[in-house]
Write a structure and sequence with these properties.
Rossmann fold; about 15% strand; elongated; about 50% helix; eight-stranded mixed sheet; alpha/beta; six-stranded parallel sheet; about 425 residues
Length: about 425
């Protein structure tokens, strides 16, 4: 079986969670014996083509005229994705399925589906409606329409959580038999290794006697960092020797810093900006608690990362985070958008290290049993196989074969031979 994945980001281009998801899933699928090609946006310094642990990665150059706006850039991206895919096809590469990740590659996915006459699957990682708590302008409505359209064109739609499944049903009226829920995962070892000395990292960001509250992620409003800042004075009133370390960058950063000045807590916060994986892992090892107070979170892979790193986690009781964390068992949950509840849970985690040790142990067990990429790849491969079997007996395929016969092409034997070899 050979899969073509389309994604607007892939390491080293990392903007959100899609890059790591596509990277880890593709590698896990290859280990299951599935051939995977990824076509993605190029980034300065990265190879245009490489084999990444068995995954064939094709990075396209965005050598278009400068786009006047974001949507024009997205359309240019899709044209370049299609161009690269057709280049592969012209060289004799054949694919059984197309797997598109989010709305930014919807046009390319739909184009290739109909020109190559093979099924399209999609993973919708989040919705514009959910990110913005509604649709408030023409841009948001357009993006939401493209998300609906991608789901309509897809043979199956994968959601990363039950919460996301229900959101797709509610917002897009997507039928339940089209949806499959497959969670995200992590490779635990990736969050435990570092070539840095954690004690030195601690001294870089905090005083030796300060407890560290750690947050990492893209600095956007829906991650709930405004709630975390409002909760910090309450934490400091009980635990005065605390430093909040916020790692990452994003459009909400300046507003967040301004609010920290207003609250008089700027000196108790370290805004690190972007940090590399070694520094991230060292900070996880130093941190007394990792906090992810999202207002909207379709899955919440950062919680898995904290759990995999062996750090106690406090999350908001919303979205996919609610499904990952069992309160008091493998982490703590605070009421969403609730300053008092968030502060109380952080204080409890800081003051009960014996119990947090037990939560960390259960968290690691859950990572190994539930959020294991080997298991996730197995389930994803089963969805691929089911789609192929349905496709082979579908009216759409029979129509394509009739049209090919009318045009003098002999697709039947070639296609059947290829599908007989799919494991």
């Amino acid at each position: 079986m050979r899969i073509l994945m389309l994604s607007w980001e892939y390491p080293p281009k990392i903007v959100g969670g899609i890059a790591r998801h596509v990277h880890d899933l593709a590698i896990a699928l290859v280990r299951k014996g599935i051939d995977v090609d990824v076509i993605t946006c190029g980034v300065q310094g990265a190879l245009e083509y490489e084999v990444d642990e068995g995954v064939k990665v094709h990075r396209i150059s965005m050598n278009n005229p400068a786009a006047p706006d974001f949507l024009t850039w997205v359309m240019q991206l899709n044209l370049n994705l299609v161009e690269q895919a057709n280049r592969l096809a012209a060289n004799g590469d054949k694919f059984d399925l197309i797997h598109a990740h989010d709305w930014l590659v919807a046009y390319a996915g739909k184009n290739l589906k109909h020109s190559w006459h093979i099924p399209l699957l999609s993973t919708i990682h989040a919705t514009e409606y959910g990110r913005n708590n509604g649709l408030h302008n023409d841009l948001q409505r357009y993006i939401s329409n493209v998300e609906w359209w991608l789901g309509y064109e897809s043979w199956r739609v994968i959601a990363c959580s039950r919460y996301m499944e229900e959101e797709l049903k509610r917002v897009f009226q997507m039928p339940g038999d089209k949806l499959r829920v497959i969670p995200n995962g992590v490779y635990p070892a990736e969050f435990r290794k570092t070539n840095l000395i954690p004690a030195k990292i601690r001294n870089r960001y905090s005083a030796p006697d300060e407890k560290i509250i750690f947050h990492i992620g893209r600095i956007v409003r829906e991650k709930g960092l405004g709630v975390l800042l409002e909760a910090l004075p309450r934490v400091l009133a009980v635990e005065p020797r605390v430093k909040l370390v916020i790692a990452g960058k994003g459009p909400y950063l300046d507003e967040l810093k301004h609010r920290a000045y207003q609250l008089g807590i700027y000196q108790r916060i370290y805004f690190t900006g972007y940090i590399d994986d070694n520094t991230r892992n060292a900070l996880y090892q130093c941190a007394d608690v990792a906090v992810f107070p999202s207002l909207y979170e379709p899955f919440g892979i950062v919680a898995l990362e904290g759990m995999a790193a062996g750090t106690p986690v406090v999350v908001s009781d919303t979205g996919g985070l609610s499904e990952i964390i069992q309160h008091g068992v493998n982490g703590l949950k605070a009421y969403s958008n609730n300053v008092i509840s968030l502060a109380d849970n952080i204080i409890w985690a800081l003051r009960h290290p014996d119990h947090t040790v037990r939560m960390k142990q259960k968290a690691l067990e859950d990572i190994e049993k539930i959020y294991n990429w080997d298991r996730i790849a197995q389930t994803t491969g089963e969805v691929y196989q089911q789609v192929l079997e349905e496709f082979l007996s579908s009216p759409w395929r029979r129509t394509v074969l009739r049209e090919s016969a009318r045009d003098g092409k002999c697709m039947e034997s070639e296609e059947m031979n290829r599908y007989r070899n799919i494991q």
